[in-house]
């Protein structure tokens, strides 16, 4: 049943391949839990499933937030099995998701992004590649999976209202959903500098359909030299994480900001601070539910602080702290 469900997820593209594999692993764990109690997947009750999702996973140290994918996998599996007539009733229909608090994402700051880019030496090929990669992540808000999946056919040249040429990216991320994201000029120029680098001419990144991988690896020792071309040259998500961590540590950026998603969060927070509506932010980020972007409104404090500093009544009268406040603003460059 698990194999059939896995195949169903992959063939019907209900979920990405990675999600389908993760769901299968979760169901294998549930199967082992039930077998230890002389039960089968097709005979489990809601109480049995809740014991696995609740007490069992808790004792294994799985947090409430990390248990949510387990619930999603189990509910999806039993709903599919019931629809196929493999079981007479769906025991997971009443299975509830564990309640979790909202966690605010770590956002890299503008000055830290600048330091990260400056940590990429532009007189080296890898420095140019990494600067282009970071620029695309921060300038277009891509998930790292969408970034590494880019091919040259996904770079779409468009003409602006002023007649200037600009790039947009055709992005495919979670669940295979596709969207077109405008690329700011700074990121577009950095990407063109990378694609025009002479060292890239010596790397075979062509795929069978004639397309070419955009972001390439240069030192993957797991692949034999004679196969190190085309799709095998594609940079992995893990390599992007390692690169950002390595460059960021040299630039002395806080550890909690050294991950690709921090750049995506900065992109979204900047949009919120510039009064972009949630529907537009959701479209640019590839969120199907605009409410998902609400967290970035909570993070958009810089613009609110600037407004308060400028418009509050204390700013227009003499107070015991007027001189000191003005001095602090001058030191921080905010006046």
3D structure, described in words:
The chain is mostly helical. It is built from 14 helices and three strands. The chain has helices at 2-11, 17-35, 46-59, 64-83, 110-118, 125-140, 144-148, 185-195, 237-250, 260-273, 278-285, 294-299, 302-311, 322-332, and strands spanning 155-159, 165-172, 178-182. A three-stranded antiparallel sheet has the order 1-2-3. The chain is globular.
What is this structure, in a nutshell?
With 335 residues, this protein is mainly alpha-helical.
Features:
335 residues; 3-stranded antiparallel β-sheet; 5% strand; hpI Integrase, Chain A; DNA polymerase, domain 1; 3 domains; mainly alpha; globular
Oligomer: single chain
Low-confidence stretches: none
Class by alpha and beta content: mainly alpha
CATH class type of the largest domain? Mainly Alpha
| Helix content class | 40-55%
Biggest sheet details: 3 strands, antiparallel
Order of helices and strands: HHHHHHHEEEHHHHHHH
Tell me the name of the CATH homologous superfamily of the largest domain.
Intergrase catalytic core
- Topology-level CATH name of the largest domain: hpI Integrase, Chain A
The end-to-end distance, rounded to whole angstroms, is 66 Å
Q: Could you tell me the strand content as a percent range?
A: 5-15%
Task: Output mean pLDDT.
Answer: 84
**Second-tier CATH architecture of the largest domain:** Orthogonal Bundle
As for the number of domains, it is 3
Q: What is the radius of gyration computed over CA atoms, rounded to a whole number of angstroms?
A: 25 Å
Which strands sit side by side, in order, in the main sheet?
1-2-3
Number of helices: 14
Shape estimate: globular
Tell me the number of strands. Answer: 3
């Amino acid at each position: 049943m698990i194999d059939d469900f896995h195949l169903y997820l992959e063939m019907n593209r209900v979920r990405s391949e990675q999600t389908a594999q993760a769901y299968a692993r979760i169901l294998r764990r549930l199967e082992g839990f039930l077998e230890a109690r002389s039960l089968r997947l097709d005979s489990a009750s809601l109480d049995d499933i809740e014991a696995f999702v609740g007490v069992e996973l808790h004792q294994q140290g799985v947090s409430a937030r990390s248990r949510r994918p387990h619930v999603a996998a189990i509910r999806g599996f039993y709903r599919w099995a019931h629809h196929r007539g493999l079981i007479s009733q769906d025991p997971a229909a009443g299975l509830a998701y564990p309640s979790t608090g909202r966690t605010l994402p770590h956002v890299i700051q503008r000055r830290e992004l600048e330091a990260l880019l400056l940590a990429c030496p532009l007189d080296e090929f890898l420095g140019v590649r990494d600067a282009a990669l970071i620029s695309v992540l921060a300038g277009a808000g891509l998930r790292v999976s969408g970034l590494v999946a880019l091919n040259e056919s996904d770079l779409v040249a468009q003409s602006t209202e002023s007649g200037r040429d600009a790039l947009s990216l055709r992005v495919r991320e979670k669940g295979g959903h596709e969207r077109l994201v405008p690329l700011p000029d700074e990121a577009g120029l950095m990407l063109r500098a990378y694609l025009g680098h002479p060292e890239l001419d010596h790397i075979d990144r062509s795929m069978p359909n004639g397309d070419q991988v955009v972001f390439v690896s240069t030192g993957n020792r797991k692949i034999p030299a004679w196969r190190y071309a085309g799709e095998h040259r594609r940079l992995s998500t893990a390599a992007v994480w390692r690169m950002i961590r390595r460059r960021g540590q040299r630039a002395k950026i806080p550890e909690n900001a050294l991950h690709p998603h921090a750049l995506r969060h900065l992109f979204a927070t900047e949009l919120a601070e510039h009064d972009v509506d949630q529907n537009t932010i959701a479209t640019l980020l590839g969120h199907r539910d605009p409410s998902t972007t609400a967290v970035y409104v909570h993070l958009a404090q810089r613009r609110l602080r600037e407004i308060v500093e400028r418009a509050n009544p204390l700013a227009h009268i003499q107070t015991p702290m007027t001189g000191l406040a003005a001095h602090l603003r001058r030191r921080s460059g905010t006046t």
